[in-house]
Amino acid sequence: MKHFKTLSSYLEYMQLPRPEHPMLSVYTAKGDEFLPCPRESSPPISTDSYSISFKKIIKGNINYGRTKYDFTNGALIFIAPRQVVQWDSSIIFEQKGFSINFHEDFLKGTALAQQIKKYNFFSYSANEALHLSPKEEKQIESIVNNIEIEYQNNQDEFSKEIIISQLDTLLKYANRFYERQFLNRKELSNDLLERFNLQLTEYFELGLVQKKGIPNIEELANIMSVSQRYLSDTLKKETGKTTTEHLHLRLIDEAKNILLKPNKSISEVAYELGFEYPQYFSRLFKKKEGISPTEYREKYKLN
């Protein structure tokens, strides 16, 4: 895997112009220009920089992950430092838009250095890009234009503070627009919940819980071709519960069936469900049901 420690080496690989600032690059395709993009396949790459890019498709659709999207309204994509990216010729497309790249050290000493880590969309995978409406696109373009003006000017002691402020505004709007996307894509959310539940069902039916322990949510998300954070955020918006909460509910549901078998102790039930420590199982069960596993067994045991 190729890793780029400096911003300039990463931009050179991406066929973007050399930066005006050693830790910041702003490039906007204007007029008949196209956003530069390597045309050949790329091995997995990573960098120490953040990337925010807006891809405007000129014609046609493209498949991202397992979902077909119409990109004519444009897609905003966020990449965090050390996040692995890879592409091949099957996803080549003409594009307009902008590309903002800044080294993580550019944020050092600012409030945004910590705040940016709270934006989950920097850990989303490519098929979870933010799809902008025409109105949203104009709002983002206006902010990027302000950043580019400051970037192209002779920079002074106020430049970095102004650019950081505009970046902060851009990310706040992106967060708002993602909220809208989560709410508007209920069909996809329902599909994700159904697929997640199917993965859990298969995990239990194959007896993997006894072999591997409690299901690993990240592994399940990878099988579903989505990132763990995006899966959890989407389910949270749609159902009010995260993936961990859905997993816990499934474990408790499985536990109820096993508890009504009188030949198994509480510890055996816990181990059968993949819990390393029976005490943790008992605490989780009581937290969700309001009574302990023993009390549940006494209350519902067959006469």
Automatic annotation (TrEMBL):
<keyword id="KW-0804">Transcription</keyword>
<dbReference type="GO" id="GO:0043565">
    <property type="term" value="F:sequence-specific DNA binding"/>
</dbReference>
<protein>
    <submittedName>
        <fullName>Transcriptional regulator</fullName>
    </submittedName>
</protein>
<feature type="domain" description="HTH araC/xylS-type">
    <location>
        <begin position="198"/>
        <end position="299"/>
    </location>
</feature>
<dbReference type="GO" id="GO:0003700">
    <property type="term" value="F:DNA-binding transcription factor activity"/>
</dbReference>
<keyword id="KW-0238">DNA-binding</keyword>
<dbReference type="InterPro" id="IPR018060">
    <property type="entry name" value="HTH_AraC"/>
</dbReference>
<dbReference type="Pfam" id="PF12833">
    <property type="entry name" value="HTH_18"/>
</dbReference>
<dbReference type="InterPro" id="IPR009057">
    <property type="entry name" value="Homeodomain-like_sf"/>
</dbReference>
<keyword id="KW-0805">Transcription regulation</keyword>
<dbReference type="InterPro" id="IPR020449">
    <property type="entry name" value="Tscrpt_reg_AraC-type_HTH"/>
</dbReference>
